[in-house]
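Feature request disguised as a bug report, sorry. It would help if multi-protein outputs had a clear separator. Right now it looks like this:
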Amino acid sequence: MPDQIHNESGGHMDTQQLRRSPYTSPDRFTALMDATQPALERVRNHPVYSTISNLNDVRCFMAHHVFAVWDFMSLLKGLQAHLTCVRPPWKPVGDGMVRRFVNELVLEEESDCIDGQYTSHFEMYLAAMKQADADTTAISLLLDDANDWTEGPTNLDRFGPPGRFIETTMGVVTAGNIPRLAGAFTIGRENMIPGMFKEIVAGLDDGQSGHLTLFRHYLERHIELDGGSHGEMSAKLLVSVCGDDDHAWAEAERAGLQAIEARLALWDAVRDSIEANR
């Protein structure tokens, strides 16, 4: 196991710092990272990144990726529902550090201050898609369908691979298994997306008459946030949830690997769609 662990921005989390934390069980967390590292490397080295070479490719990428941007909030809200108190009567729930981290994430993801305006990162992404002239038809249909999800997600098959990605996420959310939620979040989200997105978009934007400025801003904002304390805090969240429970750690690992495989399948679909469009 390396001395540093990748976080979502492509930055690193110092495992020595993690070991000094009173919230962490370094041996268990290190074992989990060892078990999931090969799958994570497959995501980081996926050929989809080198496939993106022009504005049309970025549009295709965004039309798929926006589904993952949207369902991240359902995963985060699932954690908030279980790890904090969101319904009256209020009472303190669980670990204060975990509550702080989850609520901080919700604040930033759901109502971030961007250029003096408050907006969710999903809405920011939609604005970036519109600036790039990317197709928002499918994600708009999903939002309409979600209004009728009184007993869980329906009609996801109509959205193809992005729908199957959401099905994986929502399966974890609706099951309400807290270690699986934490595993899907920490391993399947916070420790996954490589920072090379910034370089891809920065290089394209110079010649695209401003079509990608909002997209680059979205990515840079996430790199700023995830490059700070979020990687370490997500690890502490996972350890706080799993504690010394072998079954909980196994559930977290299973959910993390399931999330990684779903991401790989989505990236395969993006690559195939980009190549088919050409």
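(second protein starts here, but nothing in the output says so)
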Amino acid sequence: MKIVHLLSGGLDSGVALAHWLSLSHEVRILSINYGQRHFRELESARALCEHFHLDFVEVNLEALKTLMRQNSQTGSFDVPEGHYTEDSMKMTVVPNRNMMMLSVAMSHAIDLKYDAVSFAAHGGDHTIYPDCRPEFIQAMNQVAKVCDWHPLEILAPFQDFTKSQIVKRGAELDFPFHLTWSCYKGLEKHCGKCGTCVERKEAFELSKLTDPTEYL
């Protein structure tokens, strides 16, 4: 298949990229700046593209953050620390983020006459993030088939995976975990305290693999 893959620079989307390449699919990368506090992740997306010898394409949608202020990623709320609870995790929700990014990727894929668009929603996100649920993926898949004369498929290879299972898949592929970025605080190093850092640490622990991440 020919796939446009949304690459954030994080662990999940990075391993998904390696997964598709291991299956000999043709992959084109799209990374999106939507005004996220942790725009540092885009540097990791670029580094991953260099590692896999792919072109890095970044779309600037930074102005969108002026419309989405009531969260910790594009607004002024503090990034919650520790294990995510339902309330703290909701603070990290950027409204309709995946639909916006998928729409841009779909337009690009249609223009290229590619077969599919991929993103790295995973099973651990289902309970809180509405745009990571299987229902959302199925609905977007239906939209992708009728939004243009050129039908597309929406792929989410890790929708039933836990974070630790994604880490294990990455290890199978000899994936360069050290090039990825997870922290939501956007500092020079991973803070080690925010929910995504805690999840990252635990995923390596549960997988019984060494975490190469440098934490503050």
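Even a blank line would do. Unrelated, but nice: The CA atoms of residues 141 and 154 lie 5 Å apart.
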